[in-house]
């Protein structure tokens, strides 16, 4: 009976030592891996920062911009068209939706600022529309 008590006590001590031992590295890394996979899934399935509505963008363009920029042209300063090459050359910040948004919001030269006339959805949408038209050589 004494031997059984000693063995039980030793086994309990061994169990306590085993449970306090560190987890294998692969098991310890699982929570971080799950977080990274979850973040990647959000990034891959979320909408881009500038997810303008192209239909709304075309409507805004037709109703507000086409007077000077019909067909991607510029009736005030003919060299500053909405063609990709001209936007790359003249648009402050380079050819990007963010740069087009800045231009639409603040205006520049003969172009008026539209931030007080259009809401942010309209501005983002028209900027996305102009970018897609220029990028795809669709003017």
For the CA atoms, what is the radius of gyration?
31 Å
- Could you describe the largest sheet, including whether it forms a barrel? none
How much of the sequence lies in strands comes to under 5%
Terminal Cα separation, in Å? 95 Å
**CATH fold name of the largest domain:** Cytochrome Bc1 Complex, Chain D, domain 2
Number of continuous helical runs = 7
At CATH level 2, the architecture of the largest domain is: Orthogonal Bundle
Enumerate the spans where pLDDT stays under 50 for 5 or more consecutive residues.
4-11, 42-48
Which quaternary structure do these chains form?
A: single chain
Structural class: mainly alpha
Number of strands: 0
Name the overall outline: elongated
Helix content: 55-70%
Function: Functions as an electron carrier between membrane-bound cytochrome b6-f and photosystem I in oxygenic photosynthesis.
Family: Belongs to the cytochrome c family. PetJ subfamily.
Domain Cytochrome c: 52-134
InterPro entries: Cyt_c-like_dom, Cyt_c-like_dom_sf, Cyt_C6, Cyt_C_IC
């Amino acid at each position: 009976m004494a031997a059984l008590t000693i063995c039980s006590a030793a086994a309990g001590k061994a169990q306590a030592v085993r449970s306090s031992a560190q987890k294998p590295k692969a098991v310890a890394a699982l929570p971080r891996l799950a977080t990274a996979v979850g973040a990647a899934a959000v990034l891959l399935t979320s909408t881009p920062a500038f997810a303008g509505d192209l239909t709304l963008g075309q409507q805004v363009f037709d109703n507000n911009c086409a007077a000077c920029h019909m067909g991607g042209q510029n009736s005030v300063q003919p060299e500053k068209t909405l063609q990709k090459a001209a936007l790359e050359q003249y648009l402050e910040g380079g050819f990007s939706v963010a740069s087009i948004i800045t231009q639409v919001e603040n205006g520049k030269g003969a172009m008026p600022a539209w931030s007080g006339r259009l809401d942010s959805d309209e501005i983002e949408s028209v900027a996305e529309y102009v970018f897609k038209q220029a990028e795809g050589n669709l003017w």
